[in-house]
Design brief:
This protein is mainly α and about 210 residues long. The protein has helices at about 10-35, 45-70, 80-90, 100-110, 130-145, 180-210, and strands at about 125, 125-130. Helix content is about 60%, strand content about 0%. β1 (about 125) and β2 form a beta hairpin. α2 (about 45-70) crosses α4.
């Protein structure tokens, strides 16, 4: 059964699956390579724990407040600067671009726990799921690996970075270009974390030298 809310373009669907696989497994592969290829201790320090807590909190806020409450549901109004900040923070979760995230979540609400809900434990795009373990896997991870792309044009679209009226059901607006999305993520995300960690580590080392001198 075909559904107009889901892309029938195999190239687009496979491209999204490859992107999701990379976002899930590539960070773990990089961490394993660093752990095996460096002699520096990888045990958490005060500095790295602080960096983790700060950026974890920012990322959660970006997803929960930005991608979910603002871009998907238009639950509140805010300035352009805050929209951009929420959008960039949300992308740090590596769950794809904003338009795709919004389209998937709105499709979830449109078909909640029915066929074509992108991450239901009871149904996939192809029909009912009879096995509970398969349903659990599909709803948590499988849908990102073998699921199909939501059609943004069939969902009420969010405007990025220009917000739309929360009462509009056919919102239109310019999407932020993918290249700028990648640039912002690379410049602000990893670079910010690295700089913040280096600054905290430098202060910690200076403090320890003062105590031992």
């Amino acid at each position: 059964m075909k559904d107009p809310y889901i892309s029938q373009d195999s190239k687009e669907n496979w491209g999204n699956r490859v992107l999701n696989l990379a976002s899930i497994f590539l960070p773990w592969m990089l961490m394993a390579a660093i752990a095996l290829g460096t002699r520096r201790p990888l045990a958490p320090t005060v500095a790295t724990s602080l960096v983790f807590a700060v950026f974890f909190g920012l990322t959660v806020a970006g997803v929960a407040i930005g991608l979910h409450r603002y871009f998907t549901h238009h639950a509140f109004k805010t300035s352009t600067a805050v929209k951009v900040c929420l959008g960039v923070l949300g992308t740090w979760a590596m769950q794809g671009d904003i338009t795709r995230w919004v389209s998937d979540h709105r499709r979830h609400h449109r078909f909640a726990d029915k066929q074509f809900d992108p991450h239901s434990p009871w149904y996939s795009d192809r029909g009912p799921i009879s096995n509970r373990f398969v349903g659990w896997f599909h709803s948590h991870t499988g849908w990102m690996i073998y699921g199909r792309v939501s059609q943004p044009g069939r969902m009420p679209r969010t405007a990025w970075p220009i917000a739309a009226s929360s009462s509009s059901q056919n919102t239109t607006g310019r999407s932020w270009p993918w290249g700028w999305f990648c640039l912002a993520w690379l410049a602000i995300g990893p670079a910010g974390k690295t700089s913040f960690t280096a600054a905290c580590s430098g202060r910690a080392r200076r403090g320890s030298h003062c105590c031992t001198s």
